[in-house]
Amino acid sequence: MSEALLSLNGVSVRRGSSLVLNDVSLDVASGQLVLLRDKNGAGKSTIIEVAVGLLPLEKGEVLHSGDVLIDASGRSKRPKSAFGLTLQSDGCVGSLRVEEHLLNALDLAGGRVDIDPWLERYNLAHRKHDLIAHLSGGQRRKVAMLAGLLPGFVGQAPRILLLDEPAAGLDAASRALLVEDLHKLRNRGNAILLASHHTDFTACATHLLTENSMETNEAFEESKEITDDMKSSSQKNNPAFRTGFLLNQRTLSTVASNGIAGFLTLGILLALVDVSAADSSLMQASGLFLSAAFAAGLVGDNMVSMLHEHRALDWWKAHRQGIPNSYIHGLFLGAGLTALTQLGFDANVSWPLVAIGGLLTISTMLMVRWMDLATSRLARPRAAFTRILTPILILPFALLVQWITDSGLL
Q: For the CA atoms of 51, 52, 55, 57, what is the dihedral angle to 10 degrees?
């Protein structure tokens, strides 16, 4: 037997007071398809999420190609080889177009294949340039499914593919096509872990996992005359940066959230603070000029909230290759607010201070974003009000103002 591409060794996972997984062990080698077919609530989705390192372990470890991905001590590493992933909740952002999400999945895998034949195959060609939010539930599920399948056709090296209910909402014809594609992927040497209650996949599964016991599938039928002539090309870019930029351009989320906070702060300052106050004290002036940029940063990165849609944040986190952000837009917003504040107080624009204002906004955004991401693994992340910790950021802001005063930038 070849070396396992995916291994779960004695994994136990607790959610609240309940032990969801208890001492689960399995190995998925190249060319194998392991079907998780327990009844609902038996932990199929939990096994998929554990296999990509999304859940903390109480015991055991998860390995990708023999290297530890995550273990019970909290150690976590980025996998050396990218994988394909379909979550039960799609993992798609509604404001992205169909082709954009699929290209993200391919770029995370390190290469690209022509997606047009796949869109045609699953009757999505006419929706290629549509926003995912405008798709029906079944069409959205097809996009999520393809995002998990297509990385298996990139390059020659076998990959791990983790598919959680990929056929949910699909009609019988689409499920039959999916069975054929799973055969192709397995024949390429990919290791596939599939969770599904559909009986369609029994015939293409080499092994079955039921109640923590893995056994050879006696009903497995080898595919016949299924050829694979897929061609892929290497691709090096940053899909997380590209996606963050696209979403900000399309939704204006940074302007709508951070920008409004900054402009409101600027308006209050101009309404309540005498313009001559900026001349009375150098420290007071620098504090006034940076207040709007600081307030904009305190809102945090709205991209995190956007990615909570259909668990897209978990989809990005699982790949460990970056999470879309709003730093570029935050930089320009903070710089612009700082310049406007100086003009509003009839002061000469200090370009070094403008640059500091932009950096202040993104650094504050970064800290608040870190607070938000720190709770994202909880069952109810928004019930943990980490934003009550944001007042501690006033101290570094005050230290920055003191440094500006001492350095003579104004």
A: 50
Rounded-to-integer distance, Cα 63 and Cα 160, Å: 11
Listed residue (196, 112, 191) closest to 158, CA to CA? 191
3 state DSSP class of 134:
helix
Tokens representing 29? 């080698």
Structural element, H or E, at residue 232: strand 232-234
pLDDT digits (tens, 9 = 90+) for 77-108: 888 889 999 999 999 999 999 999 999 999 99
The pLDDT tens digits of the residues spanning 150-191 come to 999 998 899 999 999 998 888 999 999 999 999 999 999 999
Beta bridge partners, 36, equal: 195, 209
Q: Which position has the token pair 């799609």?
A: 90
SS3 call for 194: strand
For 377-404, the DSSP string reads TSSSGGGS-GGGGGGGGHHHHHHHHHHH
Using CB atoms within 10 Å of the CB of residue 7, give its burial: 0 to 12 exposed, 13 to 18 middle, 19+ buried: buried
What the block records as the tokens of 159 is 């990959």
In angstroms, rounded to a whole number, what is the distance separating the alpha carbons of residues 302 and 255? 10
**Residue 12: what are its φ and ψ, rounded to 5°?**
-125, 135
Two tokens at 137? 């539930």
pLDDT of residue 279: 63
Per residue in 33-55, is it b (16+ CB within 10 Å) or e — as a string?
bbbbbbeeebbbbbbbbbbbbbb
